[in-house]
Specification:
The complex is a heterodimer of chains A (77) and B (192). Chain A contains 4 helices and no strands. With 77 residues, chain A is an all-alpha fold. Chain A has one domain. In chain A, α1 crosses α3 and α2 packs across α3. Chain B has 2 domains: 124 residues, RNA polymerase sigma factor, region 2, helix turn helix motif (Rna Polymerase Sigma Factor, Chain: A), CATH 1.10.1740.10; 67 residues, Arc Repressor Mutant, subunit A (Orthogonal Bundle). The chains are: A mainly alpha (77), B mainly alpha (192). At the A-B interface, α1, α3 and α4 of A face α2, α3, α6, α7 and α9 of B.
């Protein structure tokens, strides 16, 4: 493994944007190097917490959009 | 055919053929991520609802006028529209609000803070809310990249293109955002 990986590569790996070869190499680094594993765990933990953050639009907003869609369809007829 | 399991692209095609319930499924499938992204950008629930409506009305017009050509990429495309509308609105608001207080401070900042505290009061103790508040406190450039990647499902390259920076800059901003969130969590004793 001659390629040097950076913190940016680790972020791309966490968000599954690395290609197969890079993913395998980074996974190997995480397994073999404690500091790399620590950085990976730290970033992954934060991303997991962010995954929990979600809000719903109000049903009224969805109803308004559907009403507009209906009007828009009626105008086309 | 189970309408809940078919692809975004198929839902769009069926909607164009007159099946409005397919549009509703599409909206409900993506509303959570899109709405969260908008809310975290504009930091105000009522405004987020308006921009959310505007986003989907724009999406509908684009689909109906046969200008939609993002096959298989509905989510990032929708997130891009939402982001542009949110940024436009914030720019307009900053331009329009020129009133300052007696000490010459821009009252725009105070308006934002006041709106946040109302929401904070309702769900202050929830850790999800704490994380949300931390995201809101990130510098604008970092917050934007984080929101577009996390909730907008845009790739780092798509974010770089949308914001006019290199992919390394977008990744660097994301890295700073995650590191800053980690620091804030440590300071506030948020357990991960």
């Amino acid at each position: 493994m001659s390629k040097i990986y950076t913190a940016n590569d680790l972020i791309r790996f966490i968000y599954q944007e690395t290609n197969t070869a890079d993913s395998a190499n980074i996974q190997q680094l995480i397994t073999e190097q404690p500091e790399c594993a620590e950085a990976f765990d730290s970033l992954s933990d934060i991303v997991s917490m962010l995954d929990e953050v979600s809000l719903n639009a109000s049903p009224t907003s969805i109803a308004i959009i559907m009403e507009q869609a209906h009007k828009s369809a009626a105008e086309c007829i | 055919m189970n309408i809940q399991t078919i692809s975004d692209q198929e839902l769009i095609q069926l909607y164009l053929q007159g099946n409005e319930s397919c549009l509703e499924v599409l909206i409900k499938r993506h509303q959570r991520n899109i709405f969260t992204a908008i809310y975290l950008l504009v930091k105000n629930r009522s405004l987020a609802e308006d921009i959310f409506q505007e986003t989907f009305i724009k999406i509908i017009h684009t689909i109906r006028s046969d200008k939609y050509n993002e096959e298989g990429k509905f989510a990032p495309w929708a997130a891009r529209i939402a982001r542009n509308l949110a940024i436009d609105y914030l720019r307009k608001l900053k331009r329009d609000v020129t009133i300052t207080d007696s000490e010459g401070n821009d009252i725009f900042n105070f308006i934002t803070i006041a709106e946040e505290s109302n929401e904070d009061r309702m769900i202050r103790n929830q850790s999800e809310n704490m994380v949300r508040q931390m995201v809101k406190r990130l510098p604008e450039e970092q917050r934007e990249v984080l929101i577009m990647r996390q909730w907008g499902n845009m790739s780092f390259q798509e974010i770089a293109d949308a914001t006019g920076v290199s992919i390394n800059t977008a990744l660097g901003r994301m890295r700073y955002a995650l590191n800053n969130l980690r620091k804030m969590m440590d300071q506030q004793g948020v357990k991960i």
